[in-house]
TrEMBL record:
Protein name (Swiss-Prot/TrEMBL): Acylphosphatase
Gene label: ACYP1
MF-aspect GO terms: acylphosphatase activity
PROSITE patterns: ACYLPHOSPHATASE_1 (PS00150), ACYLPHOSPHATASE_2 (PS00151), ACYLPHOSPHATASE_3 (PS51160)
Transmembrane region(s): 30-51
Source organism: Lynx canadensis
A Pfam family: Acylphosphatase
Keywords: Hydrolase, Membrane, Transmembrane, Transmembrane helix
Reactions mediated catalytically: an acyl phosphate + H2O = a carboxylate + phosphate + H(+)
Top-level division of the source organism's lineage: Eukaryota
């Protein structure tokens, strides 16, 4: 017998429940289970956690959750086209935000976009940068989940 299409197939009616709640779960539509998972992922992402169900890629788990994060990069990052490469990498990843030199010899900015793409950009800022740069360290702060993007492009601020 095929399971009800609106009910999770792993909760088929022809096998014994594995836990006390399973008989209750059989009556909950799959869409309700998925909505609960989405809410849990959104909540945990505000704490900086990563959640992935078995067999689910990070992109599937993260969905369209947007985040914003400020950054500052230390090292030989001025006079080596770091801002130009940062802008290009950000645009390539579909991110928005800005980048600028500071009077202290660092580069700072803000990234906004889907969690997975922001994570790629953070790794790029920490480890790669422009070809002639030398990154000593990267600081990331003020990370938060956002509902919409504050920028429409990735800008170099002079």
């Amino acid at each position: 017998m095929l399971p009800d299409p609106g009910v999770c197939p792993s909760l088929a009616k022809d096998r014994a429940p594995r836990c006390a709640l399973e008989s209750f779960c059989r009556r909950i539509p799959v869409s309700a289970h998925l909505a609960g998972v989405g809410l849990l992922i959104a909540f945990l992402s505000t704490l900086g956690c990563f959640v992935r169900a078995p067999g689910m890629s990070m992109n599937m788990a993260e969905g369209d959750t947007l985040i914003s994060v400020d950054y500052e990069i230390f090292g030989k990052v001025q006079g080596v086209f770091f801002r130009k490469y940062t802008q290009a990498e950000g645009k390539k990843l579909g991110l928005v935000g800005w980048v600028q030199n500071t009077d202290q010899g660092t580069v700072q900015g803000q990234l906004q976009g889907p969690i997975s793409e922001v994570r790629h950009m953070q790794e790029w800022l920490e480890t790669r940068g422009s070809p002639k740069s030398h990154i000593d360290r990267a600081n990331f702060r003020n990370e938060k989940v956002i509902v919409k993007l504050d920028y429409s492009d990735f800008q170099i601020v002079k």
